Amino acid sequence: MALVTISGYPASGKTYRAEQLRTYLEGRFSAPDHEGPRLKVVVVSDDSLGVNRSAYDDSRSEKPARGAAFTALTRNLGKDTILIMDGMNYIKGFRYQMHCAGREAQVRMCTIYVASPPDECRKRHEEKDDDKKYKPATFDNLLMRFEEPNSMARWDSPLFTVSDTDEMPLEALWTTIMTGAKAPTNVAVVQNAKPPADALQILESTATTVVSLLSSSPAVTSGTGGRVPLPVSSVRMEINLPARSITLSELQRHKRQFVAVHRKALSQGAQGSLDWIEETVARKFVDYLESHLNT
Predict the structure, then answer these.
(1) Among 25, 55, 56, 198, which is least packed by CB within 10 angstroms?
(2) Which GO molecular function annotation, any one, does this entry have (predicted)?
């Protein structure tokens, strides 16, 4: 349903803002006057994933930490869930990766940037328990490497920036999460339905049946043309033929061309314009013959 990405310096108050949003959303869903769907609200953070602060001491250990967060994201994205990603999410490439996952899942998305000054973040960090602290060098490195969200970047938009003194824009967030626009799915990630294993056999045998029925029809042998019934499968269909002589070799040539076009689509992994049942293939072939025989 929705993906909310929270970004900010370490100790900027991201978890506090995530809990504010979670509490507000759950309160709206449980309110007696709420008439819409009652969605599940899930918060994913380093703490919920058991990721230690030491994971950010070097890139080798940070990579699996981000991998764990992304795995949790893909596992929780769904039509009945509002997913809040509570973390620094300080690398724009990682935010883009999450955006792509949300786009593929067709959920609404937004970003909350918790914009606390570095000195204030440092002060808060010093007051934390030791197991919640980063090493001093790691903390400084994270501040330096932070890539601020940008409202002009599609993977950060729509962007809500919240400072220490700001109230959370909870009503605006609710509107974005529940009724905001969804990013269009990239054509590259749309998975085509796979044709059945016997698609080629259906294609060939159905086209052969149509040619056989036509070649034995009096309208074809006499050249009178007109509408000719074709009892293919359990469905009766018709084909409109021109008033001229149509030879078996001409019908077979058109059959080979029709089969070749759709065989190529199959070899390229595409379903094409057929759903590969006998009736649909027959209708498509009949349309093909009418357009080519009547020209």
Answers:
(1) 198
(2) ATP binding
Whether 163 and 43 map to the same domain: the answer is yes
Q: What is the C-alpha end-to-end distance of the chain, expressed in Å?
A: 51
Q: What is the DSSP string of 48-64?
A: HHT--GGGGSSHHHHHH
**CB-count burial class (<10 Å; 0-12, 13-18, 19+) for 15:** middle
Residue 169 shares a structural domain with residue 105: yes
Per-residue model confidence as pLDDT tens digits over 49-63? 999 999 999 988 999
CA distances from 92 to 89, 146, 188, 220, 263 (A): 8, 9, 21, 67, 43
pLDDT tens sequence across 149-174: 999 998 999 999 999 889 999 999 99
Separation of alpha carbons 120 and 64, rounded Å: 29
Number of domains in the chain: 2
Q: Are residues 40 and 116 in the same domain?
A: yes
Beta bridge partners of 112: 6, 160
Cα separation, 110 vs 27, in Å, equals 20
Q: Which residues on adjacent β-strands are paired with residue 84?
A: 4, 43
The token pair at 6 is 């929270």
